[in-house]
Structures are given as C-alpha cells and as structure tokens.
Design goal:
The protein has about 475 residues and is mainly alpha-helical. It has 20 helices and eleven strands. The strands form five sheets. Strands 3-4-7 form a three-stranded antiparallel β-sheet. It has a two-stranded parallel ribbon with strand order 1-2. Helix 7 links the parallel strand 8 and strand 9. It binds one RNA strand of 76 nucleotides through helix 4, strand 4, strand 6, strand 7 and strand 11.
Length: about 475
RNA sequence: GGCCUUAUCGUCUAACGGUUUAGGACGCAGCCCUCUCAAGGCUGAAAUACGGGUUCGAUCCCCGUUAAGGCUACCA
C-alpha cells in the first residue's frame, strides 16, 4: 500500500474562502486519519487574477485554523516546486508531448475573436459552440506559423461519440458524453497552463492519490480523466464535495455575508469553533455528537460519511458553537485575544488582571470576542448614556432614595468583595424597607447604563468601590 | 438552452427496506432557575417535494415530474 497523498490547491486570488477552508479541512483530516501526506499547492496560472500577498495570507489563515501541511510553499518537499507559476516549463513539455502524439493541437485563433464569436444574442443564452477544429490546419501550415513566431494555444483533442465515466467516492458512477465536451485549451497562448493540464500534471508528479475538491469541478473531471489516459497515468480517486450555500441556496458568495475566513477571525470567532462548525457542513459522525476538536475530527472523519447535497452556511449555528468554545477557554487566553480587538476600538491601558476579570464576567454573555467591547463597555468607561427602555423599566419614583441609601452604605465598606457587597446591599434594602430588587435594578442601571449584564455584585467588585460610588452619585445628579 | 449533481423539520443533519408515534442540534415559543442577561434544565410547534413503480413492507431501490444548484472561458 502506498502512502495516501492529498492536496489543497487554492488559487491565490485574495482571501481564503470558508468553502476553501472546508475543502482544506477535509483533505487534512483524510491525510491525518490515514497517516498520509497533506500538500499545499498554489494554483496561480491566471496572471490576470494575481493578487500580491494572497499566498502569505492563505498560509497564515491555514495556520490559524490549525491545518498544518506537510509539503508546500515555505515548507519544502521533494515533489516541488509547489507553486504552479514556477513549473511552467514542465507544463509546456507535457503539452508538447500530447501534440506530438496527436492528442492535442495548436490553435492560432485570436482570443478576442473567439470571445466575440461566443457572445450571446439578445442576452439569450446561446449554445456555446463545441470547439473542434483539429483538421483545419495542415502540419506544414502549423509549422510555418509557429516558426513565424505566432502565438498559439494548445487544445486537447476530445474524441467524438464516446462516453467518459468514472466513479466518484461521494457520488458514485458518473458518465459524460464526449460529444458535449469542448476541445479544452490546456496551454494558453501566454505559455501558462490552464487548470486542467496543471492539475493533472501536478497531481501525477506529486503522487496525489485522492483528489478531494468542490463539486464545481465535477463537470470538468472527464477532461482530467481523458488527460490521465492520454499520458498513460493511473488516475487518482475523485471525491467531489457538496457546495457551501448562501441562505438563498446559491453558491456561497460575498454580498450575502462574510465568506473570507479572515472575516470570521477578525470578528472574534475562535478557530476551533469555525473548524468544528464547518466540519459539520457536509459531514457528520453518524451519531448525535456535535462538538469535536481537530484531533477528534481526525479520528472520526471518513469520506463515506460526507453527504451529497449542498449545505447552507448557517451563522446562528456557528454562533452557538463559538459560544460553546468561548466558555471552554481560559480567561487568560481569551484576554490575550480580546486585547487587540479592544485596542482597535481605542480601548487601551488596561491591566491583564483587570481584563481577565472582565472576561470572566462577560464570556458567558458574548457570541464573539468582539462583543466583549460592547457587552462590557461599562468596564472601560463610565456609561455615556442610559438605555431608554431600561430607565423606563428600572428607574422608579423611589429609585433615587434607594440608590442614595445604597451609595451611602457602600461608601462605608472596607472590604469591597462581591459577597460583602451583596450583604451590604441586602441589608440596606432591609433598612429602607424595600425588596432587594428595588436596589439591584436601579443600581445596575446607574452603574452600567443598561438593564442586562453580569451579576451586579460581581461586576461591582471588579469596578471597585470608588468607581461605583462615583457613578451612583453622578447618576443621581443627572436623573433626579 | 445543454450537460452534470442534488432533494428528510426554517437551517445543519440521523435513520444505510421492517426496531419509527421519522431521532438530535441550531433557531423559535413556553416553563423552571434567577438581581437582569447569558448559561443550564424541562416542554412544545416544526420535515420525508410530487407522481408512478419494485416489494409482504418504502425516507431508504428504480423511473418520471418538479424544484434548486453547479458547470458550460486561452478563470480557477
């Protein structure tokens, strides 16, 4: 048995898409599960879509998610280079080989001409002509034009009237009529290969045994199958993953929310949450467990349990998974992650100890790390405004009297702990002849500006006696 | 338009012909807990797209319809 080798082969056109992350994840899990090799390969064969910095970004994001690759850019490996733009001569050689063997041919048609010929009429979809003109030019003519320095693309020759079939590990047997398949360009006139050639050549040369990729590649797989045949190479097995969808069930895209992994990172989602959530979009363990660490996913994952239908990227579910992991993480850990987020919003100069206390009281009440700044805003500054509804609900006629009494009592305290505060407040309420709620609710409002939040006594301890008393007096001044 | 793929609660999904009054999770509603919120606990509403077969028996197998998506580039 040879080692299982899989690859994640994104094109560096910007940021890592969450769909791409899932593809990478499944490849990674499959490789780890079978003690195989996980390769990262950069498919940068479209010069017009080149985005500087995209590769670094991709690598950084993969690392953030914990998907460590074994071979690839910056990592090495003996089947490199792992960046397609550095393998140009290779593709040219293989394309030339196919031409020589009559399995591909030169096409001198101008790109613009071709595009013009395929334009739709009246905006109505028009059957794109199947390009097939292998016999248009004589060998002499081709040789002459090539010698004259004319640029040409290379098209693969697709046989007529046959069926191209393969067995997909997820979808089963799939067949395509060759008559419907274009004589695909495999080498562009600028010398770059198209995806089809590069992908087949590289997968073979890199020893890829299993191709696990998105369903959008299913229709072009017969071209790849054909190329494997032409080269006389054993083809890998294919597994086409169902697509990730927008809420309206179209292919997940921008404009309908965030699609870049970085967006979620920036918003304060934990990598383990995103990974766990995304793993469940198209795969399930077969029982009712839903929380999985990366290690557990490696143990449980199998292609057999990957579904066939597209999955809507449901942000509510992600939120709930994120909340789960937020509660699991240590306060200290979270504090380190939250600090830069706070600083982004101009909140700085906070001690580690204080921030950890804030985290302790807010982490059960936030969805993302970013929410700490809003849910716990009063920990960082006196409330600027008092929530209107909260005032209506919790600031009653006798509230000034109650808050005054509480403030007076608090002022005398020496040990300002949650337990002591609670005792003080409750006995103050007793002395005022009212229920504790008559103090607690207005107090919370005066201290935080809102009607919801962490436990009052705990929050007060963190705020400290001076801040509490100051805010209470101030609230009395402005509200009465 | 053509080709390919897909089709269980709103969403993610389980049930790989009978153990099913179709299970779980998120979301939603209610209740409990409680200083509020969150968490937690309990309860509830909520699905096999439609029509034919095959079979003693279909969510599950086959065919068709419908719907959705993907692909149809010298983009990946």
């Amino acid at each position: 048995m040879s080692t299982i080798r899989v690859r994640f082969a994104p094109s560096p056109t910007g940021f890592l898409h969450v769909g791409g992350l899932r593809t990478a994840l499944y490849n990674f899990l499959f490789a780890r599960k079978h003690a195989g090799v996980f390769i990262l390969r950069i498919e940068d064969t479209d010069r017009s879509r080149y985005v500087p910095g995209a590769v670094d970004n991709l690598i950084r994001t993969l690392a953030w998610a914990g998907l460590v690759y074994d071979e690839g850019p910056g990592k090495g490996g003996d089947r490199g280079p792992y960046v397609q733009s550095e393998r140009l001569t290779l593709y040219a050689e293989y394309a030339a080989q196919l031409v020589k063997e009559g399995k591909a041919y030169y096409d001198f048609d101008d790109q613009e001409d071709a595009e013009e010929a395929e334009k739709n009429v009246d905006g109505a979809p028009v059957q794109r002509a199947i390009t097939r003109h292998a016999h248009l030019l004589t060998p002499e003519e081709i040789a002459r034009r090539l010698a004259a320095g004319e640029s040409a693309a290379v098209r693969m020759h697709v046989p007529a009237a046959t069926t191209i079939a393969f067995d997909d590990d997820i979808r089963g047997h799939v067949e395509f009529a060759s008559d419907l398949i274009n004589d695909q360009v495999i080498l562009k006139s600028d010398g770059y290969p198209t995806y089809h050639l590069a992908n087949v050549v590289d997968d073979h040369l890199m020893g890829v045994t299993h191709v696990i990729r998105g369903e959008e590649w299913l229709p072009s797989t017969p071209k790849h199958v054909l190329l494997y045949e032409y080269f006389g190479w054993q083809r890998p097995s294919f597994a086409h993953l169902p697509l990730l969808l927008n809420p309206d069930r179209t292919k997940l895209s921008k404009r309908q929310g965030d699609v870049a992994v970085e967006d979620y990172q920036r918003k304060g989602y934990l990598p383990e949450a995103l990974v766990n959530f995304i793993a469940l979009l198209g795969w399930n363990p077969g029982d009712e467990r839903e929380i999985f660490s990366l290690e557990e996913l490696i143990r449980e994952f199998s292609v057999e349990r990957v579904g066939k239908s597209g999955a809507v990227f449901n942000i509510d579910k992600l939120n709930s998974v994120n909340k789960h992991y937020l509660r699991e993480r240590a306060d200290r850990d979270l504090a380190a992650l939250v600090r830069p987020l706070l600083e982004e919003q101009g909140i700085g100069g906070i001690s580690d100890a204080y921030l950890e206390q804030v985290i302790r009281l807010t982490k059960e009440r936030v969805t993302t790390l970013r929410d700490v700044a809003t849910v716990g805003d009063f920990f960082f500054a006196d409330p600027a405004v008092f929530d209107g509804d909260a005032v209506k609900k919790n600031w009653k006629a006798d509230s000034p009297r109650c808050v005054t009494g509480a403030a007076d009592a608090l002022e005398t305290m020496t040990k300002f702990t949650a337990a002591a505060i609670e005792q003080t407040i409750r006995s103050a309420a007793e002395q005022l002849g009212v229920g504790a709620g008559k103090l607690i609710h207005p107090l919370r409002l005066a201290l935080t500006g809102k009607a919801t939040g962490p436990g009052l006594f705990e929050l007060m301890e963190v705020l400290g006696k001076e801040t509490c008393v100051r805010r209470l007096r101030h609230a009395l001044d402005t509200r009465v």
